[in-house]
Amino acid sequence: MKHIKSGSLKAIFLSAFLLAAPSLFAADFSVRLLPCYDFGLGSSFNNVFSGNASLDLSAFTVRSRDEIKLSLQGGTVFMLAQGIDPVNFYNVGGALSYSLRIADRFGISLEGDGGLWLLPQDEQTNLNGASGPYFGGRLTADYYISPVFKAGIFGGYQNYFYKPKPFLHSIQAGISFSINITKGLFKTTGIKNLDFETQPLFPIFYAHYDTNSFGTISFTNIEKNAITDVEVSVFIEQFMSVPKVVATYEKIQPGEDFSADLTAFLNESIMNQMQKQMTDAQVTITYKSLGQNNQYEERFFLQTLTRNSMSWEDDRRAAAFVSAKDGAVQRFARQITLALKDKPSDKGSYSYASAIFDVLKAYGINYVVDPTSVFSTSDTVAVDFLQFPYQTLLYHGGDCDDLSILNCSLFEALGVQTAFITIPGHIYMAYDSGLAENQADRVYGKGKYIVQDGKVWIPVEITVPQDSFELALKLGMREWNKYSDDHNLIPIHEAWTEFKPVTVPESDVSVQFPKDALKK
Fold first, then answer.
1. pLDDT tens by residue, 161-196
2. Model-level pTM?
């Protein structure tokens, strides 16, 4: 058999230490003091006092809060008897215990200990030295004052073995005081993050996130006792002024999981987001453990998209881009109002609708097929790029969703309610005629409209801005009827209750209104 070189042994011990070190430093250590009175059995000593100090390591957790502990112990025994000088000896050893947590503040521990005892030689009193093994055990009833401190009372038996008879064996009664140095010094928390799932932040929906989730995060209570007054808050420093409380729990039992939906009261600064980025966020959990205030923090990153970004999980989302307060839209609306003020009409909203079509045609708005648009692919998860109304005016065109947003914004600015119409792969718009059905029959023709929620809606195909208004009406109704089993009319005002309209300051741009467009 070959001998192992000393260098190899050192390497093995070093490797073992490095592997074990993280577990040791993360372990739960406590210091315990055990003063007691010993009732000597068959002893000539009348009064025996002892005391031990114990360094306890919580090695294993059983049933979520019971503990198996390993201990290093040392102490002294002080004995008095009439006519005999005091005798003092020492012990050092180890212990194994099982701690049963029967309630949040109460527990029972059964402990067995053993080691060596030593009586030093004293030449002045002609006391010969002696030594030997000892063994014993104790049963302790513990009261948990806080996660750091606990106190208890115990009874036990100790045998300081010697031949031909024990040097001392006794029944013990005492008290114990324990300090959890891991929790006391390192401020460890009893919360463990299990999982979190987040969705990208869309700046256009910043108001929506106040009451609607952009993700979830879950935790478990790893304290050995229930935690109370649990409060979960979210803070995104870049876009929030103060943290927002997103969940509260009166009590979480040990080992119990809990979760929170992530919401946030974001400020308008997020609308300055021109490029997507990763944004730092923080979840904070405050709670009480056995009356002691504690705090847990978890940092994570959110993807924040550009302000023109949107996905189509819900078609109502596009209503957030429809804004009657868009600066460029306001300019157009005022000019249309002035041009029509001397032209009274009994056709409801027909005059406004026709005027909007003529103005956009004269302005030079074009329908541009966007090959990158995801609406036509029915991909509800992919991110799409939608233009604000002023951008469509500046660019003199856009795809179907851009033109629908612009047209709806102009109608709304003129006080005419609008709706999105969605069919497979396409979105366009409708406006409230303001007429009863019999009136709409005379203006538009029988069956040339949609009746929903007591309103008569007129569909307008917005992708033919350079044709005629009559053609736009005809195509709008044709498409509605073509997809009779798969069409949807979404009133903008109803969508706004969920997805608030957003106006950006840059929308107040100078756009040239085509003044001759309405002169006939």
1. 998 888 889 999 999 999 999 888 887 888 999 898
2. 0.81
- Amino acid letter at 276? K
Cis before residue 514, ω within 30 degrees of 0?
no
Nearest to 257 by CA among 292, 206, 216: 216
- Rounded to whole angstroms, how far apart are CA atoms 107 and 99? 7
Angstrom distance (rounded) from CA 196 to CA 478: 47
Q: What is the pLDDT of residues 103-128, one digit of tens each?
A: 999 999 999 999 999 999 877 766 77
Rounded to the nearest 10°, the torsion over CA 434, 439, 440, 444 is -120
The yes-or-no verdict on residue 219 having pLDDT over 80 is yes
Pick from 357, 366, 496, 365: nearest CA to 420: 496
CB-based contacts of 334, cutoff 8 Å, min separation 6: none
Contact (Cβ atoms closer than 8 angstroms) between residue 322 and residue 490: no
Q: How far is CA 85 from CA 42, 79, 88, in A?
A: 19, 9, 10
Q: Residue 347: CA atoms inside 13 Å, Cβ hemisphere, count?
A: 14
Q: Quick one: which of 147, 55, 63 has its CA closest to 99?
A: 63
Strands (E), 236-275: 244-252, 257-261
List the beta strands (DSSP E) in 354-443.
Answer: 366-367, 384-385, 397-398, 418-423, 426-432
Angle at the Cα of 147 (from 141 to 149), degrees rounded to 5? 60
Q: What is the pLDDT of residues 28-50, one digit of tens each?
A: 899 999 999 999 887 777 788 99
Between the alpha carbon of residue 344 and those of residues 337, 340, 350, 456, the distances in Å are 11, 8, 11, 21
